[in-house]
Amino acid sequence: MDAVVTLFSLVATHSDLDLETVGTLSSGAADVAGSVNVPAVTLATCNRLEIYAESPSDKPEDVSSAREQLIDAVAESSGLTRETIASSFCTLMEDDAVSHLFEVGAGLDSAVIGEREIAGQVRKSLAEAQSAGTVSGNLTKLFETATRTAKDVGTRTALGSRGRSIVSVALDIAGDMRGDGAEFYRGASVVLIGTGAYAGTSLAQLIERGVSDIAVFSGSGRAEEFVSQRSEALQAEGRIRSLAMEELSQAFRSADVVIGCSGGNRQITAGEIRTLAGLGQPVEQGGRTAPLTVVDLALSHDFTPDVADLDGVELITLESVKMAAPSETEDSVEDARAVVADSVQQYLTERRERSADDAIVALRRHTQQVLDEEMAKVRKHHGCTAASEEVEFAVRKIVRKLLHTPTVRARELAAEGRTEDYVKALEDVFGLEVAPREQAVPEDSERRTPAKRRRAEDFSPAELAQMAAYLRQVPSGGFCRHHRPGDFNVERLDAVRHIQPAEPLPKAG
């Protein structure tokens, strides 16, 4: 049997690396899968970069080659050295890669355990890979199942029932820092920098908390479009508006909170914050006296670290969120892990059973070819449609029964991870070569097409005469002389329809 594809993943997450390194690795992540010649899906979030891929076979050299391609692609897109990239990624193979993705999608590996945003990011990563044409059927099945598992965790367990997310935890921290908690936001003024997915989530959270003044700014000029896609009622009430560059300084001076989630290449420095917010300036010159809370939700950082050193400014980063994230109850986590474990086992079992399909197809193709060859000899020798079809019907029935047990055993052995044993048996006993279904049948293949039923004009006069002699022995409405009427219902050819049938066979008993 030809070597089968092998699943593996390259994983870099908040659990092993600082978020700044993860952010640098993620630079240009969207282009990685499209720059290699192996099927791949990239999952990039605020605290992880993971690439799920397939090597063309299970040979170590092929797996290593596929991995090296991806590392080279990440190095080129991020600007980091190849050695740094290689040491940053953890490689997971086959079952381990499956289990990890399912846990990630369920929120069990997030900085905020149980957060629901990651499930949408898993679904989005698959959609992007499908749009770019970098995904295989196996990877599609993997990610779709991971998404369904995340949904099952949400409906069957209490994990994430409090709706915690990185954004919500960051806003909770900001509210607590200002001393008023949830009440702080009701009269707060917020500047939101960015128009991506996190900006949308942040906006929804701010509105839910009752913020009445939200100004959106985008360095790429998409703020107006972003705002226009939101509720007209919110815009009419003046709760949300877009900012032009010339309005940014005034917005900063009146803001209580500035949230950055653009993830752009340019960072706002402490000096720029000081100027924009009027820090240290006299009140009569537009300076501010109220504290300013800066929330940096961008993986690559929207603000430089020295912003935290400014007087009157509190900086909240993803690292802050990670450390302050509330823990879920032990029971809810265990329940979620049980759901994930069951889903992983079911997926792996089905995957192994699918791996037996190639062997089953090969065996059936072999028996079909032998049957077609033998039936061709029968037709050539007897030249009688009724007789040959009777023989073919009986033979096909026997073949189906003979194939039943080998088919069942193939799936049983596959579920046990013993597909190779089954394939080896086919090769030793029948001399069959089992090729993967993805392998196209060569144009010069000797595979036979199913035999076609012959038409009346295809028979010679001698064959029709022999058929007529046989049909005189067949009871009216019968299929052949060995069956009673009603056992089969086969129309006779017009050329022999006038022949008088024999009397029906007497009923037994």
Automatic annotation (TrEMBL):
During catalysis, the active site Cys acts as a nucleophile attacking the alpha-carbonyl group of tRNA-bound glutamate with the formation of a thioester intermediate between enzyme and glutamate, and the concomitant release of tRNA(Glu). The thioester intermediate is finally reduced by direct hydride transfer from NADPH, to form the product GSA. Its EC number is 1.2.1.70. InterPro entries: 4pyrrol_synth_GluRdtase, 4pyrrol_synth_GluRdtase_dimer, 4pyrrol_synth_GluRdtase_N, GluRdtase_CS, GluRdtase_dimer_dom_sf, GluRdtase_N_sf, NAD(P)-bd_dom_sf, Shikm_DH/Glu-tRNA_Rdtase. The gene is hemA. It comes from Nesterenkonia cremea. GO terms for biological process: protoporphyrinogen IX biosynthetic process from glutamate. The active site is at C46 (nucleophile). Pfam families: GlutR_dimer, GlutR_N, Shikimate_DH. Belongs to the glutamyl-tRNA reductase family. The keyword Acetylation does not apply. Residues 186-322 form the Quinate/shikimate 5-dehydrogenase/glutamyl-tRNA reductase domain. Residues 336-432 form the Tetrapyrrole biosynthesis glutamyl-tRNA reductase dimerisation domain. GO terms for molecular function: glutamyl-tRNA reductase activity; NADP binding. Keywords: NADP, Oxidoreductase, Porphyrin biosynthesis. This is Glutamyl-tRNA reductase. The keyword Acetylation does not apply. Catalyzes the NADPH-dependent reduction of glutamyl-tRNA(Glu) to glutamate 1-semialdehyde (GSA).
